[in-house]
Amino acid sequence: MRKLATIRKIESIEPIPQKDRIVLAHIDGWQAIVTKDDFKVGDTVIFCEPDSVLPKKPEFEFLSKYNYRIKTIKMSGIISQGLILNMSLLSSPSSFAIGDDVTDLLGVTQYEPPMDKDPRPRTQRQSFIDRILMRYSWYRKLKDRLFGLGHTDFPDFIKKTDEERIQNHPEYLDLDCLWIGTEKLDGCSATYFLKKKKFLCFNYYEFGVCSRNIRLNKQDDSVYWRMVEQYNLKQTMKRMIKDADWMVLQGECIGRGIQKNIYRLSNNQLRIYSVITPKGRLNSSDSWDICNKYQLQHVPLLTNAAGVSLKGKTPQELLEKANGDTVLCAEPILREGIVYRSLDGERSFKAVSPNYLLKHDE
Questions:
Q1: pTM of the full predicted structure?
Q2: Which of 69, 191, 265, 344 could hold 255 in an S-S bridge, CB 3.0 to 4.6 Å?
Q3: Taking 80 as the threshold, does the pLDDT of residue 205 lie above it?
């Protein structure tokens, strides 16, 4: 689960030109505007990241005009991301340490675009007979063993697609490693998996389709399932899996009917950004190659496939670099940002374009 509200320390504060009542506070790679004299350098505070949704309580009433959601804002020409709160909101402030997660304690939740939410109650996903039989453990075990249809939860062996922002990992920019940058696309996240399974003497494959948060057991007309047919994903993954026990493809669905089709596409596309097996996640160059081999579309590469060094860069420099236009269409349309992944595939982070967030009120 994403840590939306954490205990952090204010590292520096700088004045804002021609402003006497507000200043800019720096926390790790983040910068947020605060009222002057409310905080000082070295203070331990609560920091809420963008996309945090705070509960509707009197102490957060000042956020009501924003529907209690923390967004990127621009004030006096300065980008401000996140919300800094006083430790007095916690019952025993002295008992918390830097890095502690207080998301649940404060009742903070993550904003989710409509397409990433579960569109139907679970009870509507089952037939009457299925609901009756699900009362019996033998049926639940048999159904799960044969088809993996006994659950709608996101599979526990797969990590959900939610890259950490560079502001949370400025230490990555001190590493002696190379990174590959790909364009971060604004659509809806999809996950597809294939597992080799055995029941008695029968070998078979379990194929699964997931949105960002749930497994979509029943084939329907959603874009997630349409991509299965459009790219013949089940059969393609059977060819790709080779000797692995399982494999996962994660990507972004973009195009008509998705996020206002900002890329002006005439159809829908699935753009793969992660290929995962029990051995780990492939780096972006290798996943690009395997997608090309099996005629799947990959998210655009924005750097040399051999990787680039980011050592010595600052989070703010990477955010500035994230500003730019998408490579998916000829007309100038702001891209959402850049995702960087190390050559070993183990580390990754995203630099989300401040200009994009401001334009789309995020």
A1: 0.84
A2: 265
A3: yes
